[in-house]
Amino acid sequence: MPTILGQNQYGKAENRVVKITRDGDTHHIKDLNVSVALSGDMDDVHYSGSNANVLPTDTTKNTVYAFAKEHGIESAEQFGIHLARHFVSSQEPIHRARIRIEEYSWERIATSDGNSRFIGADEVKHSFVRKGQETRVSQITYDGENWEVISGLKDLTVMNSTNSEFWGYVKDKYTTLKEAYDRILATDVSARWRYNWTSDEQRMPNWEKSYEQARKHMLQAFAETYSLSLQQTLYQMGSRIINSRSEIDEIRFSLPNNHHFLVDLEPFGLKNDNEVYFAADRPYGLIEATVLRDGVEPQIPVDMTNL
Amino acid sequence: MPTILGQNQYGKAENRVVKITRDGDTHHIKDLNVSVALSGDMDDVHYSGSNANVLPTDTTKNTVYAFAKEHGIESAEQFGIHLARHFVSSQEPIHRARIRIEEYSWERIATSDGNSRFIGADEVKHSFVRKGQETRVSQITYDGENWEVISGLKDLTVMNSTNSEFWGYVKDKYTTLKEAYDRILATDVSARWRYNWTSDEQRMPNWEKSYEQARKHMLQAFAETYSLSLQQTLYQMGSRIINSRSEIDEIRFSLPNNHHFLVDLEPFGLKNDNEVYFAADRPYGLIEATVLRDGVEPQIPVDMTNL
Amino acid sequence: MPTILGQNQYGKAENRVVKITRDGDTHHIKDLNVSVALSGDMDDVHYSGSNANVLPTDTTKNTVYAFAKEHGIESAEQFGIHLARHFVSSQEPIHRARIRIEEYSWERIATSDGNSRFIGADEVKHSFVRKGQETRVSQITYDGENWEVISGLKDLTVMNSTNSEFWGYVKDKYTTLKEAYDRILATDVSARWRYNWTSDEQRMPNWEKSYEQARKHMLQAFAETYSLSLQQTLYQMGSRIINSRSEIDEIRFSLPNNHHFLVDLEPFGLKNDNEVYFAADRPYGLIEATVLRDGVEPQIPVDMTNL
Amino acid sequence: MPTILGQNQYGKAENRVVKITRDGDTHHIKDLNVSVALSGDMDDVHYSGSNANVLPTDTTKNTVYAFAKEHGIESAEQFGIHLARHFVSSQEPIHRARIRIEEYSWERIATSDGNSRFIGADEVKHSFVRKGQETRVSQITYDGENWEVISGLKDLTVMNSTNSEFWGYVKDKYTTLKEAYDRILATDVSARWRYNWTSDEQRMPNWEKSYEQARKHMLQAFAETYSLSLQQTLYQMGSRIINSRSEIDEIRFSLPNNHHFLVDLEPFGLKNDNEVYFAADRPYGLIEATVLRDGVEPQIPVDMTNL
Fold first, then answer.
1. Would you say D8 and D46 are in contact if contact means Cβ atoms under 8 Å apart?
2. Residues of chain B with pLDDT > 90: what percent?
3. D103 and D165 share a domain?
4. Quick check: B196 contacting C, CB < 8 Å?
5. Statement: residue D121 has pLDDT above 70
6. CB-based burial, D190-217: b 16+ in 10 Å, e otherwise
7. pLDDT for residue A122 is more than 60
8. Do C276 and D69 touch (CB under 8 A)?
9. Can you tell me which residues bind O2 (chains A, B, C, D) (predicted)?
């Protein structure tokens, strides 16, 4: 046979599961989008169409919903660990399971201003508005022995309205850019960090707390860095997380430079003193890099944007 | 000529303007997407291509940016009023101007936890994260005499995890739905409300406060209504606003019923006690209605979704 | 009661129905997205939550699928007519039904080049690739007596690489645009045309042929008009349809001016002789107008873009 | 320093360039979206913010437009080769350049049916409609010595309305799926193939012809395979390309299984004889695999979908 099969994986993608937990009258929501990808002894299904080793993608979907009941959803990471372990442990042909999860956050709707005629205090305990800021993401991979957990977020849009410069760069024959000594720096943060928890023997991180802290450090580093380049800001964001969270060894960012161009108002006899900007769509700068704990091998894939 | 020209309008759409205002070291952001549509004496440009009456769309774009400097952006509505008045007043062939504005909200990034070595208090005064919840919208129309201001929001996703029922409905030969006595009620609120401010003689509403209050009342009505149908909830949301805000006479909603289907776990020997839901994409129920102050003529267009 | 209910409608939106028809070994596809909106005696469900007059949206979904079997899908318009008639005729509280349909086109995959060892001629009769060009749309409304059928298309992207000028326009203090004597003219056509078929007494148009012809005339008018403004081109596109198709009385367009800016290559010592363009995203000009058969009243809603 | 910098790259993404070439009155379009990513000696800009080695992303944008004039756009691949070579050759700190290109196809608008009063034959030579089917993609990487060219396409939606089965799979306690002996098989093809051209010494493939042929073979293999699983169809699509095109050594697919569920019409007394389907959105099966020429090392990254 002149052609052969290479790496392959399959499963049900984007299973939208919402889990309501009742603590008396107070309800809690977990709102996830779960994608399953399984690999293993799958040559036959590709070469001949024999499904003898194939657990249907429909079954992987059913398992997601059943596990939401059987195990609950303590965190996206813990839920993914339950799922990945199950597929690899229960199906001999499956050698590797990768679970990807998006999580959407909700917050409670504030009560009426003490207007007790309309509402009992219990009622608002089940009413929510979606936060709508970043999407939390997680990827859990298990090969029967070792775990890899990569978590992060995407679409967290941030802006510094000053304390950003850009000058001293290379100039070639195609360079027309003017140097900037006070510009807006804005980006949509996409970040993935890898935990050094890899084995059931190790103590598991507190996934919820770790996420909140990594997010906080990243935002603060963005805000507090006087920036000479988006690369410098990126590195500060990453090293702040590595230095603050011992459970995280590696982080990769993909940061578009959301250009805000100062509008030339001189034709209208007006001076634009860093006040009025045009927020551009395309093209945009795109800055991507990995920041690592010294001595650690990088594992997060380089490409967070698609070909 | 067997064919004639009907209603027409033109202008530059989606001008993305970001305005930074400096109050000492504290910066403030207004982040808008402004669309201009002009109507008037425009037969010639359609019939013969004569542009003698046409102010270029490029000029309407320039005007948006120039006005951000000249007038500032106190509120989306006030900014739209400046623009609409300008086009109608300054260009004889233009008889009507309609300004549509989307506004994106930002909040400040919280400071480091008293870690004064890294950061001075001033630095965080220019750092922002986009809120990412609803998009605020506004439409300002002026014909040289009267104003129409319609404001609102879209993509505000809300959910009640209980206190919603649906039963007692019509059953025909195509009806298979089971009655529900405890279901999730979730929707993406799209709402437009019309102000009764129509003339420069009247006292102008406080646009910012009015928006915040209308949004608050709407959310509370959603949370506090024990719902027998999404229509009932919609009506409560609308009447709460009309009753609470004397400056608003009419509101129209377009509310998708974001179905959350209880997953059947019985095949797996599990009982699903209103815990595990599948969040569906399409199809979805779509409930649309206008709520009016009694005695008022409706003006908000019925179609908030496109053909 | 200080607030009252205004116009309202409800139903199941975006029912994705695919119908396969077998003509021997040759299969045919109809691929639709059907949205149902019903109006009528619906005060109670809004005021009190009584569903006594409410046919569930779930039932409207079931009806779409059942009718695909019972009536087949001869055309989107004919299918919508069956549905609208059914809802108004069979349910006393329902006084008006509006069916909106999107249709996606497919074409056959070409056979192997006479390689008869691999494939019998029958096999390719069931293999399709989605055309991917415009989306065909239709809206059928019925009130028990009269019909309104509005059809059209969206997202048909066209470009003339020459024969477009723009000059002789108004210049005010905010005008900086240079006049153009040879520019690219490009747009994404969104068009809706209204048929003058309104009653079961009239002979029904051939919906499929009418669509193909209207589309063809529109494209040819775009290609063949030497344009002094996008408004002029729009009018030519509309009047060509009205003049060529007696079954169509009115058409409305929403045409973004997809700007292609000539890139200034002089800083690099290069002359750009209408060769290299930057295709911009936002902002864009937006030109909207109705073209009517003389003597006819316009009925297509003015707003094809959302507030 | 406890943290270090890992892999990094930067550049301007999504430069939208449209090139018009004039062959007498006949115009030709190339419509590309070009993204530049450069790597090399970039430690300083991350650690200290020194831009001494940084060619601005704005300059990479300018270069894209200048090269469209200087070199023309013979094919996306050839254009990317010019760009990648330039950045690595002309800038000492840049050791690797990766150019990603999306290409949008256009076809000519058909002429009027011999209606010579309205149109000269020359006019339609400059009028185009966007094809709207797949997006062609290409990625060209150069490190100063070797080339890697990966091309392909995305969003090519195909369907077989019969000749697809799925049965004989693993059944565990979470399996409820019924076996299928005649189902619809539909997918949105995303494919990337790698050329074995790696050095300037080798004869370069005919990029345009190679793309057309690879696409044709892939579509035919999809149409002609009697499918027992989407994996089997995928493998046939890949091996058909490898076997037919000696310049291609490896191909990777990401194929969603676009589920079309047969609607249960029995509650309405109707039999659904593989006629009426519900086209589902989420979840969907996702089948991904690499097909290789025997003896070749895989290089295409495994992840074509994002974390």
1. yes
2. 93
3. no
4. no
5. no
6. bbbbbbebeeeeeeebebeebbebbbbb
7. no
8. yes
9. 57, 257
One DSSP character per residue, A138-178 reads EEEEE-SS-EEEEEEEEEEEEEESSSB-B-S----TT--PP
Closest chain A residue to D253 measured between Cα atoms? A8
Together in a domain, B164 and B300? yes
In the block, which residue shows the tokens 């010294």? Answer: A294
Residue at a domain's end among D117, D145, D173:
D145
Q: Is A282 close to D52, i.e. CB distance below 8 A?
A: no
What is the ipTM, given to two decimal places?
Answer: 0.95
Q: How far apart are CA B271 and CA C115, in angstroms?
A: 56
pLDDT value at residue C236: 98
| Contact between chains at C112 and D70 (C-beta distance less than 8 A) | no
Task: For an interface test with B, give the residue of A240, A262, A275, A284 to mutate (most B CBs within 10 A).
Answer: A275
> What letter would DSSP give residue D189?
E
pLDDT at A1: 58
Instruction: Please indicate if any CB of chain B lies within 8 Å of the CB of C242.
Output: yes
What CATH number does residue C161 fall under?
3.10.270.10
What's the rounded mean pLDDT across residues D201-222? 98
Q: What is the pLDDT of residues D137-162, one digit of tens each?
A: 999 999 999 999 999 999 999 999 99
CB contact under 8 A, A238 and D286: no
Determine whether the annotation assigns residue A57 to a binding site: yes
Check whether residue C265 and residue C179 sit in a common domain: yes
Record the tokens describing residue B272, joined without a space: 């699903």
D282 touches B at CB < 8 Å: yes
B183 assigned binding-site residue: yes
Nearest Cα of chain A lies from the Cα of D109 at a distance, in angstroms, of 28
C58 part of a folded domain: yes
- Chain B closest CA to D268's CA: distance in Å? 6
Q: How far apart are CA C118 and CA D225, in angstroms?
A: 9
Per the structure, the complete domain to which residue C292 belongs is given by 152-307
* Residue D51 covered by a domain: yes
How many separate domains does chain A show? 2
Domain identity same for C27 and C166:
no
pTM for this entry: 0.97
The confidence score (pLDDT) of residue B111 equals 72
Q: Which of B145, B178, B205 is the last residue of a domain?
A: B145
Task: Inspect the interface and report whether the beta carbons of D49 and A227 lie closer than 8 Å.
Answer: yes
Using the Cβ of C174 and the Cβ atoms of chain A, whether some distance falls under 8 Å is answered with yes
Q: From residue A298, how far is each of A45, A295, D163 by CA, in Å?
A: 33, 10, 45
The answer to whether residue D206 sits within a structural domain is yes
What's chain B's average pLDDT?
95
Q: Dump pLDDT digits (tens) for A79-106.
A: 999 999 999 999 999 999 999 999 999 9
Any domain includes D2: no
User: Which pLDDT band holds residue B294 (cuts at 50, 70, 90)?
Assistant: very high
Q: Which residue of A has its CA nearest to D179?
A: A56
Spatial CB neighbours of A114, under 8 Å, sequence gap ≥ 6 = none
